[in-house]
Design brief:
Mean pLDDT: 87
Radius of gyration: 34 Å
Structural class: alpha+beta
Distance between the termini: 18 Å
Order of helices and strands: HEEEEEEEEEEHEEEEHH
Shape: elongated
Low-confidence stretches: none
Oligomer: single chain
Strand content: 25-35%
Length: 267
């Protein structure tokens, strides 16, 4: 499980896994005294036994795994007390996983030779680590892009302004201070639902060069709890502009805004 900034920029994570490892007492031989294997006395090295069952059709012969040697064809005269002759024991290991920058939920990496040791001290398999990204309180990931909602006062949207934007780098304590904040240029007359793009502030491309973008969707805030003086000024402003109410179906831009707004709040 990763924080968003860990998945975006990459990180080394320490995890604990329960796996079989080579028995340290017998070093994988399964023998308590170091003696070699001997041929199984029941199956004579075949690993299987012939079992005859009587039925109304006659005798039926089947082959079954030898219960004495578990199908190996040989046995250990004196089994190791720690692994009971299996040559491996289960333990908890700490492993460092190098998470590549740009990894996403559901993707995984393979750690060669970090899986379980086979019976009899056989070679270890591989360990697959799958990632799950914790939702961020500000940013939402969309492929290589990051998306966020910015609430902007009505006057600032009308006049235009510069807004400092806290970047995802701010969550990463080792990031340079100058990379932790960017400046969003809001042009005069910006409408509700406008999406402004900050180039190269998104997610590093996992299998390529460069980064995605940061999309900032603007929510224009209407002032509340106005004083009488402020109300009068707004009335004068409205009269100067001859503002009127209009009706009609939403425009293409407005439909896009409603769709992005729904995605932002539903995740």
């Amino acid at each position: 499980t990763l924080e968003l900034h860990e998945a975006v920029f990459g990180v080394d994570k320490r995890i604990s896994v329960d796996t079989f490892v080579v028995c340290p007492t017998c070093v994988g031989t399964g023998s308590a005294d170091g003696r070699d294997y001997v041929t199984c006395s029941q199956c004579h090295g075949q690993g299987q036994l012939t079992v005859v069952q009587r039925s109304f059709l006659g005798n039926i012969q089947t082959m079954q795994t030898c219960p004495n040697c578990q199908g190996y064809g040989n046995t250990i005269p004196s089994k190791c007390s720690d692994c009971s002759g299996a040559g491996r024991v289960q333990t908890t290991r700490d492993i460092t996983v190098r998470v590549p920058a740009g990894i996403n939920t559901g993707q995984r990496v393979r750690l060669e030779g970090q899986g379980e040791v086979g019976p009899g001290g056989g070679p270890a398999g591989d360990l697959y680590v799958e990632f799950q990204i914790i939702p961020h309180e500000v940013f939402q990931r969309d492929g290589d892009n990051l998306e966020m909602i910015l609430r902007l006062p009505m006057a600032s949207a009308a006049l235009g302004t510069e807004v400092p934007i806290k970047r995802l780098e701010a969550d990463w304590e080792d990031s340079p201070r100058e990379d932790r904040e960017g400046t969003l240029q809001v042009p005069p007359g910006t409408q509700p639902g406008t999406r402004l793009v900050m180039k190269g502030m998104g997610v590093p491309k996992l299998r390529g060069r460069g980064r995605g973008d940061l999309g900032v969707t603007l929510l224009i805030q209407t002032p509340q709890d106005l004083t009488e003086e402020q109300r009068e000024l707004l009335r004068q402003f409205s009269e100067l502009r001859n503002e009127v109410h209009t009706q009609g179906n939403p425009t293409k831009e407005e439909r896009g805004f409603f769709s992005r707004l729904k995605d932002a709040f539903t995740g």
